[in-house]
Amino acid sequence: xxxxxxxxxxxxxxxxxxxxxxxxxxxxxxxxxxxxxxxxxxxxxxxxxxxxxxxxxxxxxxxxxxxxxxxxxxxxxxxxxxxxxxxxxxxxxxxxxxxxxxxxxxxxxxxxxxxxxxxxxxxxxxxxxxxxxxxxxxxxxxxxxxxxxxxxxxxxxxxxxxxxxxxxxxxxxxxxxxxxxxxxxxxxxxxxxxxxxxxxxxxxxxxxxxxxxxxxxxxxxxxxxxxxxxxxxxxxxxxxxxxxxxxxxxxxxxxxxxxxxxxxxxxxxxxxxxxxxxxxxxxxxxxxxxxxxxxxxxxxxxxxxxxxxxxxxxxxxxxxxxxxxxxxxxxxxxxxxxxxxxxxxxxxxxxxxxxxxx
Length: 358
Known about the structure:
Pfam families: Glycos_transf_1. The protein is an alpha/beta fold. The protein is built from 12 helices and 11 strands. The radius of gyration is 21 Å and the shape is globular. The model has no long low-confidence stretch (mean pLDDT 96).
């Protein structure tokens, strides 16, 4: 069994601020440890430059330099592998490559992106560092076909690129929904892409004839804007606020359909959670999102809200279709997106690296 150092530059897995990024980091730590290996959070140092500020980058580099020296001195001597999650131009890994070089151990990355377009401009320095960190990795695990495009184009030497589909931190499926409750939306209320999805959702609902009810689970700084978008629908839209995991699971088990357009989602854990409970999904056919959805006829982005409303209406009018779509979704999750498969894929690619060093 191995001792693994895990690091997530943008947000530590034990951050109090919820997000899909934090959730995936937690899931990855659990999956890596599932065969009995020890996985320890190497550092909570946050390396994140949201706006492309040279002074911020300089300050973060100084903090990382001090932290890097500490880690080389303090981490256990039997640390055999370093794993970094989500290295990219706004949050480059300033610790892993240095530590692995000093300790002569393998370095791997999960869900990294290469943004050559950022090698000039406000993030140029951080982008270059993220690029070099990718070069230092013996293995990069990618979650979506969209991520693979640039990773393959910029692959360094004999580096291995290994698919690791997004997954749920469980080995079995939860109870199946009867698909006969209200529609369900699950989404943080933030400005930017999340609000864009809520805007598209409101446009879709305005075209949805007949009786319907939508429950919205989520909260955040853009809630007033979301409430304004949904005000025309009155009591048809119910705001549930932020829900914990158990409450969300009960919602999945009692809803009829999950609807979330998915504007610029990396992939979206909610799609995995809903499908595991047998909910059919209404989303747009977008890069990343399509990697986690069971095969079906999802509306194109170009088709806009009208096509989303049509798909919703067809599901709301046909209980048998909802159940059959939901059953296919459960099968898809069971075959591809549960933790045991992720654990196997990870260690098949990484144990040989440690054997070479031993």
